[in-house]
Known about the structure:
GO molecular function, one term (chain A): carbohydrate binding
Oligomer: heterodimer
Distance between the termini of chain A: 77 Å
Pfam families (chain A): Peripla_BP_4
Subcellular location (chain A): Cell envelope
Number of helices of chain B: 16
Largest sheet of chain A: 6 strands, parallel
GO cellular component, one term (chain A): cell envelope
InterPro entries (chain A): Peripla_BP_I (IPR028082), SBP_2_dom (IPR025997)
Shape of chain A: elongated
Radius of gyration of chain A: 26 Å
Structural class of chain B: alpha+beta
CATH superfamily of the largest domain in chain A: Response regulator
CATH architecture of the largest domain in chain A: 3-Layer(aba) Sandwich
Amino acid sequence: MRVHRFTAGIALLLAAAVLFAVFYFKLFTVGSSGVKTIVVVLKSTNVRADFWQTVAGGAEAAAKEAGARLETVGPLKDTDAATQALQLEEALESKPDAIVAAPINDERVMGFLKRIQEAGIELVVLDTPLALSPQPAEVAGNHREAGRQAGRLAAEETDGKPMAAVLGDYAASTVSSEREAGIREAVGQDGFAGTFYVEDSEEKAYDATRSLLAAEPRINAIAALTEPAVLGSAKALKELRRTGDVKLIAFDSTLYEIRLLEEGSLDAMIVQRPFNIGYLGVKNALKQLGGSRVDKSSLIDTIVVTKINMYSPENQKLLFPFR
Amino acid sequence: MPGERRTIFPLKSIQSSIAFAFSCLLLLAIAATSLSCYRLSVDAVENNSRSYIKEVINQVNTNIQSYVDNMENISLLAMTNKDVKYYISNDSFISDEESRPYEKRISDLFQSILYTRKDIASIMVFGYNGRFVSDRRITTLNPNAKIEDQAWYRNARLAGGKSVLSAPHVQNIIQNEYRWVVSLSRELKNVDGLTADGIFLVDLNLNVINDLCSQINLGSKGYVFIVDGDGNIVYHPQQQLIYSNLRTEKIAEVTAASSGSSFEVDDAQGKRFYSVKDTNFGWKIVGVAYETDLIGYKSTLGRTLLITLAAVAISLFVSVVLSHRLSRPIRHLQRSMRLVEKGDFDVQAEVTQMNEIGQLSRTFNMMVAQIKNLMQEIIRTQENKRRSELQALQAQINPHFLYNTLDSIVWMAEQKQHEEVVLMTSALAKLFRASIAKDQELVPIRVEMEHIRNYLLIQKMRYANKLDYRLEFDEAVLNDRMPKILLQPFVENAIYHGIRNKPDLGTIVIRAMQRGGRIVFEIEDDGLGMTAEQLEKIRETGDGENRSKGIGISNVDERIKLICGPAYGVRIRSEREVGTCVTITIPKWPAKG
């Protein structure tokens, strides 16, 4: 009966080999198609939207580093919530491993983010803090710290006696309110002249600056949270010949703002690191897919750029995204 | 069984041994070749990849070099151009109005160069006399950018006539233009070749280098980066990460590495190879390739290895099946042989194939048939022999016995002993009738008992004062049957060898009894007994004295064994001066019906 035992042994071995082979091939095929797919949904994919282009660049860098497949989508205008919602839906249907989204603050967008979470797809939110539960991992500029940086700068420039006004866009904007809070923190209650909402209008900013300075001559620093606010305010200060006298501090950078900084109309810019936001966003998504926990909220430091350091190698890269 | 395990193949059947041996052989051979192939391929792939990276880096180097050479050539062109020299010369022989055509000519020249070269962003000359000319007709300089502060400007002045290549930077001297460029600048000398008149600038679009480097494919994760002589990064795909310390690059190692060398780094980011190449304008071009990419074939190779293993498994299986099929007829034959061993000669091994084993089976079948025939023949012969012997035995009534008996009868008749004469004659008649009767071979024991009684009666009359006898036949066995005239020779022996020569009275006791399904006869006398030699002689020839061709006791024994089996037969126990006892054992043949 040894023969039978031998045959049985061989059969067992064979079965094991076949099983192993099957599993291996299965794993292999899964492995090759199992390259992690990540969809990045930005607020804008407009080639002129330097910030988002750089975010996309960072995301690509992280994806390449990890050998993941990346797809970047986004509406042309960063206010086009309908398109973004649609793109989120498409992303959801394509069943990627993770979605990294910079959501526009909108009900439909939020709805899809919720559905993405429910579908079990890893979600990382970029740039904008969100009220979602469970709270997704977040990667954003440290807006409050940016505000503090601005406030501290204002205080330094005014020999420690700041009287700062803030030109914001909308009271509801989470980013703006974070920045504002940071400024208030840094300059203190005595040095804070108030926040004025000028929406996305250069003219309103211009008017606001003029009336502000007329009403409160002690104001020696203006923090303009958006580009229109900066442009309007700079124009007003120039006309009032208060440029340099009233410190103007901007957030984020655009070409117009850079020019203002070069000519001295703008004293400083608090610049985010969009490349890092995109990079960390994708990296965190990959980390979560890999099973390791990441910080719920990764805040990227901002940089203070003045006329003096704007052409340093590091800051050049930030101010003039290379394409 | 445990002892058998000592052999090389611990398996009993040929099939398993063959399968085992071939499997081992196959496995060993395939494993050895696969492994060595794998090692060789991995080495080859690695070497190829390394030389590939070097090749790629060289290519990048050549390309960048050609761009830089081109800029150099343009700068030489500008340097040797008379118009340029006059235009920026401090000599006042060209007034401002006169300078217009010069400016136009120079601008046209630059423009035509620019048309032919897509990689050049701008060409400009700045005279120390405050004049400047560019490749465009109308150029507005950025009022907020001071040329004197620009690195390329300062470095060119310091270099004193040699060309200077800048790191990539944003060129901001033209209003509203912020382009990433690499600048080549050079101080232009006066006609006398000693005094400096201005700075020449040619900007190379960084796109050119960027595209060049980013298009390089060094696997999915590999990349190319460039550092300048001081270790500052000229180009790196993840420059921003490095600036913000999210990533580190092995700048120190790269600066220390000589041109054409390569080194290996193994850290959290994975094992990777750095390949460094110096350019002749001070930059170092570095190619980084990850091991996982390089030996991406490794998985393919591993898969091949696996396929090989699967093939081995399949061939193993096939070999087992084949050997099983091959050895099956042998096993059939073996089984048949075992049956034959047990005595079954009706076995026929099935002949399925006409190969060696088929022929073997056929021969085996023929052999078994032959053996069977022979056996049957032997049995027949033996039977005939037994029968003829029995007949001979039965036929043989000793003539002396007859003569003596008749003598005795005559003697008794002369003595007028009528009754004795009648008794003896009738006994003799019965004796003869019994031995002549040929109808049946087996007779009831009762008949045999009567026969012996008649015989002994005659003998007793002859040896009246010498012989006494007792018949002790169990009632139970009287109806069973036995071969005819089985006992007479032994009784005869007992009388002639034991009793006749005994001085006083001898007694013969004949018993028949049943013992465990057998019938046992005992013929016991208290005669002279026999020596071993006599016993031997008796065994050979029966009573050798009166009969020259008597029936040997051993013959009777053999006959009984032949008919009834080895458990039966004749046993003789004899002792001098005590007597002899013969025991005959036969099977119990119950009475007919």
